[in-house]
Amino acid sequence: xxxxxxxxxxxxxxxxxxxVKHPLSTILFxxxxxxxxxxxxxxxxxxWAETHKKWLGQYVNIDAGIPSYSTIRRLFTLIKPSYWGQxxxxxxxxxHPNKKVEDHxxxxxxxxxxxxxxxxxIRAMQMVSALSIENNIVLGEVKTDCKSNEITxxxxxxxxxxxxxxxxxxxxxxxxxxxxxxxxKGGGSYVIGxxxxxxxxxxxxxxxxxxxxxxxxxxIEDYFDESHGRSVRRRxxxxxxxxxxxxxxxxxxxxxxATETISSSPYQDNxxxxxxxxxxxxxxxxxxxxxxxxxxxxxxxxHWLLDVHLNDDKDKKYEKNAAENFAKTKRFLLDLVKSKxxxxxxxxxxxxxxxxxxxxxxxxxxxxV
Length: 369
Description:
Blueprint: H1 4-9, H2 24-36, H3 42-51, H4 53-56, H5 69-78, H6 81-95, E1 104-112, E2 125-132, E3 137-144, H7 150-159, E4 167-170, H8 177-185, E5 189-194, H9 199-213, E6 219-227, E7 230-240, H10 243-246, E8 255-264, E9 272-280, H11 289-295, H12 298-310, H13 320-339, H14 349-358, H15 360-368
Parallel strand pairs: 1-4, 4-5
Antiparallel strand pairs: 1-2, 2-3, 5-9, 6-7, 7-8, 8-9
């Protein structure tokens, strides 16, 4: 197992060697520790480093003192986010206990709203991420400049992943042959949401599903959720693609999954029902079809954690490389905390994230053990 310092020492320095005062590993280590401890900007990183100067000296060379906030910011603008992402991912793999083979990989995009600046005509940055359900970590990310570009970003992300034997789930944005072909080429399978961005296929599937597909013979799962006074019944139906829809099918599409969500609440007078449709190249009898649909929302939960506990949406950084590198560092923190929670009493993700900044022993455990 390699420590984070060993990885940082192997990182290529993008700076002019004639203008280097502080070692690269020192600045990067300060940056990681600062973000992990709650730093929201470059000045916060400097404050954290000055406060923990003696502790830092045990791990990195600070003979030249603590770098200024402008030095840290400038380095974050120079570093290529793809290289930074590779270093982070390798660190996560090295420190992940009992890593399992990937079975389910949800993919979804997230807007970094704070990266938008109307006065400077800067669009909000999108990060398209792939999550490992089995290992609870992000496997890769690709940046885009607008939500519509997710369609072109997803194939680039898929090309970075080991998909052999895994099932990729994507919302309706991924419902096209270019993305499906990339999944199949990698040896993976797919479960993809179907909406009206494929109007003819959606209409045909909806018509057939309501007429014949959702018969009880095709029911694969039926259960109730009870929470906050709200009762939700979820039903899953799977059936072969009928002959009349074959001409509209996407590549290797074998099965249609129809899900019905029936909701009631003491605060509402009426009962609501909603249908959603999915396509897959799995056989209709595959035992995990419902799990793949439910599990896809784990990536939404991951994005929620970034916003609520790490202020991802409120991070106002307009230099693209700096914004992306800072965002990747936050994901590095969340991945490590989720995969290596502190020993002892089980606590919430929020509590564990707080502990990183308050307990230097836990910070050392995350980065070195």
